Amino acid sequence: MLKIGVPSKGRLMEKTFDWFGARGVAMARTGNEREYSGAVEGVGGVELVLLSAGEIPRELAAGRIHLGVTGSDLVRDKLAGWQNQVSEWARLGFGHADLVIAVPAAWIDVDTLDDLDAAAAAFRARHGFRLRIATKYHRLVRDHLTRNGVADYALVDSQGATEGTVKNLTAEAIADITSTGETLRANHLKILSDGPIHQSQATLYAAHNAEWGGPERSALAGLAASLGLPLPVF
Amino acid sequence: MTDRAAIRLEAERLFAAFLSAGAVPVETDILQPAEVLLDLYGEDIRARAYVTADPLMGEMMLRPDFTVPVVQAHMADGAEPARYAYMGEVFRRQESLDARAREYLQVGFEVFDRAAPEADAEVFALISDTLADLNLRPATGDIGILMAAVRGLSTSERRKAALLRHIWRPKRFRALLDRFAGRAPQAAARASLLERLASDAAPALIVQAGPLVGLRSAEDIAERAAALLEDAKTPPIAATEAALIYDLLTLQAPANAALAHLRGIAPMLPAIEPAISAFAARLDALKARGVDVEHLPFEASHGRTTLEYYDGFVFSLLAGDPHLPPVASGGRYDALTAVLGQGRSIPAVGGIVRPELVARLRGGA
User: Fold this and answer.
1) Beta-carbon count within 10 A of B47 CB
2) pLDDT tens for residues B285-313?
3) Complex prediction ipTM
4) Which CATH superfamily is A2-96+201-227 part of?
């Protein structure tokens, strides 16, 4: 049986169902409203697994699901060397969000990563500790800052309400997902001008480590035909 | 995979060689407080070390190297001069399955001695003699020369500090140098930033920009704004001086020839003379220990991409296979002892050997 992991609630689930539905693959939750089980119609041999979007990267990596829909930000952040563990099969064109670095709008001297690096050096010299950046995207943010030669910063973990950490003095800057920038502005933050760390969208992935036996391969071929996609490259 | 018993045997042999060279054996904890390492190396160490949590001590790291705990132990209660040897596992986090070892033995030798050139030569000669039968290719360098050259530039202290801060990040260093030397055009973002900063006094601009949140104060911001405006007025580093730094970045020659070349450029950049004398004294000391300095490869940029603490002599001993990490490596880290010594410091140099690679090369596997 080919298992496909799909976000278990919210807009991401609905949009995923819509995307597959528009391509002749009907997905639906079954049972009562609180029960996380689902069904797939229109293509044989496929089982729907409803999961938290945040757990889908891990389940893909472990090969417990063959396919999964989740944000590309989560896959790139949670999986070390993600290209070796999953293949991007299709970008679904919704769930768009940018992972950005934001600093207080009143920092008139900081516009780019270059400025952030210089500000971090001065901040450390004056305050005795590294400039703190609050985020939950540790791998993506650290890789980005290392690649761009930013030093004298420290990442502090923030799993929610990240925009508030600056005001609460637990961080000097943040790195977080934003779609409109509205929450950032409301918290008196601005986005650095040299581009987002990652432009995320909902993406359909195929797991390298899942068991791809005959039944799974033929279900995959059936699904590919319905979706009008070439087979994923492993 | 070379078997672990054979690796352990190589490690013990190396360790014994270091002890008979006069080193005192030292042991360090495997669990190290993360704070010290993070403070020294920054966030990058988090990507390279295993971090774990102790319910009472907070964040801990599995020892990513021995240098820091050995320096700490020496600064706490060591007499000088001192020679130490150690043997044990270090742990390096890897981001891919086929990457380098996550856990491997290191055997090291560290010298805390104020006679720096002799100590450099002692460490290099001891380690290369111990591995002489493997015909490893040596690579050497001296970060101190590049640092002295940067300090000697006739430009603002701020620019020199910025260059020194990024000396271990070659790409970034190069970008800064290109900008300070007027070789790279000013980025559009920087130009518009400067225009804005010049339009009004900083405190007024800060107020206009919105409510100030966070610990970084209006004074911090105004200070950097002033620094940016000042830097915009700073003339580019003179082409002749910049050319000397570019020359140093690419200098690669046998040690004796490199020394002659450096002596040739010293009159144009007198600030590097002490570093060149130290280089010359080191070559004499190496020669006295039987090292062939006529053919010893030297690269002024060698060792700039390692963890950032080497600030003088650096070396590696490499196997023929370019995919293997260095069989041995080391260098001088005087500044690190000052950071960890809380006001005290002592010149220090050391090196490590990876017995796993030695066993593999000896076993012919």
Assistant:
1) 16
2) 999 999 999 999 999 989 877 666 889 99
3) 0.87
4) Periplasmic binding protein-like II (3.40.190.10)
Report which of A100, A98, A96 is spatially closest to residue A190, judged by C-alpha positions: A100
Question: Measured between alpha carbons, how far is B30 from A141 in angstroms, rounded to an integer?
Answer: 28
| C-alpha distance from A27 to closest chain B C-alpha (Å) | 35
Inter-residue contact B190 to A114 (CB < 8 Å): yes
Q: Which domain holds residue B173?
A: 137-182+236-318
A95 backbone φψ class: left, alpha, beta (φ>0; ψ -120 to 50): left
Instruction: Please judge whether A106 and B221 are an interchain contact, meaning their C-beta atoms are less than 8 angstroms apart.
Output: yes
Burial readout A29-53 (b: 16 or more C-beta within 10 A, e: otherwise): beeeeeeeebebeebebbbbbbbeb
B218/A81 Cβ within 8 A: no
Whole-number Cα distances in Å, B6 to B10, B25, B294, B365: 6, 21, 36, 12
Report whether pLDDT(B69) > 70: yes
- The answer to whether the beta carbons of residues A158 and A134 sit under 8 Å apart is yes
Q: Is B83 annotated to bind ligand?
A: no
**Which member of B46, B165, B189 has the closest CB to residue A121?**
B165
Residue B249 has pLDDT above 60, yes or no: yes
Question: Quick one: what percent of chain B has pLDDT higher than 90?
Answer: 78
Number of domains chain B is built from: 3
Q: A167 to chain B: which residues are within 8 Å by CB?
A: 213-214
Report strand pairing: B328-332 vs B313-318: antiparallel
CATH code 3.40.190.10 region(s) in chain A: 2-96+201-227, 97-199
